[in-house]
Amino acid sequence: MNPADNGQAPAGMTTREALLDLMRPVDEAVRDWPRKTGRAARNRVLDAVRARGLSYQSWDEATWAEVSAEASPARLHVAALGHLLGGYHRLHHTAGIHQIHKLADLVFGPGATEPALREVEQTLNSWQTSPHLLEWQVGNAVLDALLSAASPRLEDLTDTLLRQLVAEYDRMAGLNSRRRGLIKLSRVLAGKGIIPAPLHSNEGKAGPRSDMLSTVPPQWAEWALRWRKFSTHEPGTIRSMFSVILIAGRWAAENHADVIAPDQWTRDMAAEYIADTMHATVGQWAGHNRNRSRFGQPISPGGRAARIDSIRGFFCDLIEWEWIKPRFDPRRVMSMPLSLRAQMGPNPRIIDDASWAKLMAAGLTLNAEDLKPYGSGRAREAGWKATYYPVEMVRAMVGVWLFGGCRVDEIRRLELDCVTWDQATDDTTGEPFTICLLHIPQNKTSRPFNKPVDPIVGQLIDAWKLIRPPQPDLIDRKTGQKRPHLFCHRGQLVGKDYLNHNIIPVLCRKSGVPQTDSHGALTSHRARATIATQLLNAREPLTVNDLQQWLGHKHPASTRYYAEILRRTLTAAYKKADYFARNVRTIQVLIDRESILTGAAAGGEQPWKYYDLGEGYCSYDFFAKCPHRLACARCPFYVPKQSTRGQLLAVKDGIDQMLEQLDLTDDERDALEGDREAVTALAERLSDTPTPAGPTPRELGTTSGFIPLTQLTNTLSSKTPGQRDMQDTDRKSPDYQE
């Protein structure tokens, strides 16, 4: 050690010479600083050396922070000296210095960090990161990281350093902004290849909670954690199985305190656990459980099956990995009881047709104003354009959800070029039609594959791609490879809960559909069951094998949990199923609110509902049940638009426009598809059928007529969602009565 470190001059050197030698590095450090502040910092360090009787070279970080706090006019400069001379690169954090930009100029030189700041800012701007965050959140985070790395270059930042900083700020209250800025910086560094992958907001929070493990015997927890580390299941599967494995450990501690470890379990003990599981209640042996709404109630058959399957898989893995010697066969002793298996079976939680049609209409007419109530407070203050995600991106996501039948993880991980367009010819009519193929990424049961979807999905995706700003390639969690993702914004994937927590409530509110029904909450996965059920029950349904491929199931047994179907080839069957048209066979209805409010409708004095037939209106309340609806006989319920009554209806106040869904017969469907012979035959067959007013079409002298409902269908499918925005859209089932 240098003798000057303890205030003594080395042999042969005077005290003045030793002091000058001690202060020479300080003088060199402050040479380019302003003369006044540089001298003040130098003198403050010299005074502290004299007061403490200890050279600054021996100061620890706490001493530098203390000296810096005492040097009020030259606080930043003393901290900079501690960084340069003491090697304490986190001194700005320890000393609580907020003028971090000035400190960086003192440490690295004026403007030395500007290239790094400008590079990060330009990258985030190109990803459409909120501009108001760049200066105070991201800028300070960048300077913090550069000071901690003792370098003004982004290339010198490491993944280890960023993780240490994020973990440090995660433990400190009031510093979430700095933590979020560091996470945004990590996205830029990952995009440039400086670090392998960006950090996430839940960084450091992965793994089981401590309160879960504290209620489990240590011996059992050790085995469970070891299994969790080496298991090759999907992360979600590991999490669910792990919690059930801990339940078994708590059960063992309660019933067999002397036999805790898995290698001590016997055949009788395993059988006892299965028997107790069959009679267990919600919350029993669950340890820390925040959801106590169903505590004490019997566990559902699915919950009991999950407990049995998980513990059986746990013991099978331990035996197969040769961690324990087999004392029983888990596949037999822990098999699912037949009584429980009988309670398990296909039970698709589909959304009823009427609600699904309303959700579809809301999704196809979604606009930014609908998203405004679900944005942040800052977004609402800035206006509807300040929604977090662009409305074009949300529309594309909703289109995939409504028509794609995808899992939410598949939707989030769709690649940028996931749509392929093709042409095919109808086997029956020979007419060409457009095929839209959606490329589904690798999922939990199948490899990547293509599935046909309605062209509207491709149109919405193409509309989003036209305005999508450049985004970094992100690592796909399934394949571990970097890929350009479709639903990527501001350098990160759309949130995994965004569909369930934001979009579906928006659609329910817009369409007037409750967010829960008899099957529970409306979730993203229920759309998958709903679409599959509609395809399976269409006029030209898909076969089991076809639907298995379309859904991406590995085994046909999984597909049977949705519905039963007939046979057809995949693409042709999907085209003939006419899934989109099935939900939009609607007719426009005018509602006369004045007639309802005055009681005239209730007294039968005048109609209150008018069905738009094109050239006129039908005032018959039960038009959906009228056999003449596509070959109108012009009975007394018919009101021509050119008549005085029809013209008054068009300009009358208090008229609401709605849509009502019709269930078409085979003859009507042929007529709508343009078969004129079918129209003539339909009119002829109905010529002697009484109209709702009594007379037959032959008696009225009107044996021909046709309502062009296809014009309405084509209008809905040709316009963009923004052009079809309706304030009050309602689709009712064929049996609906006001």
Describe the structure concisely for a colleague.
The protein is 48% helix and 8% strand.
Low-confidence region ranges: 1-7, 564-570, 709-738
Helix proportion? 40-55%
The general outline is extended
Question: CATH topology of the largest domain, which one?
Answer: hpI Integrase, Chain A
Number of domains: 5
SSE layout:
Blueprint: H1 15-29, H2 35-52, H3 61-70, H4 75-86, H5 91-94, H6 100-108, H7 114-126, H8 131-149, H9 159-170, H10 176-191, H11 210-213, H12 218-230, H13 235-255, H14 267-278, H15 301-320, H16 330-333, H17 338-341, H18 353-364, H19 368-371, H20 377-382, H21 391-403, H22 408-412, E1 419-425, E2 432-440, E3 449-453, H23 455-467, E4 474-475, E5 482-483, E6 488-489, E7 492-493, H24 498-511, E8 516-517, E9 520-521, H25 524-536, H26 544-551, H27 556-559, H28 570-577, H29 579-583, E10 586-592, H30 593-598, E11 609-612, E12 616-618, E13 638-640, H31 644-651, E14 655-661, H32 666-672, H33 676-685, H34 697-700, H35 709-718
Antiparallel strand pairs: 1-2, 2-3, 4-5, 6-7, 8-9, 10-11, 10-14, 11-12, 12-13
Helix pairs in contact: 2-4, 3-4, 4-6, 6-8, 7-8, 8-10, 9-10, 12-13, 13-15, 18-21, 18-24, 21-23, 32-33
Q: What this model shows, in words?
A:
By secondary structure, the chain is α+β, with helices and mostly antiparallel strands. It has 5 domains: 3-108, no CATH class; 114-191; 210-341; 353-581, hpI Integrase, Chain A, CATH 1.10.443; 584-724, no CATH class. Helices cover 48% and strands 8% of the residues. It contains 35 helices and 14 strands. Strands 13-12-11-10-14 form a 5-stranded antiparallel sheet. The protein has a 3-stranded antiparallel sheet with strand order 1-2-3, sandwiched between helices. A two-stranded antiparallel ribbon has the order 4-5. The longest helix is centred in the N-terminal third of the chain and has 21 residues, at 235-255.
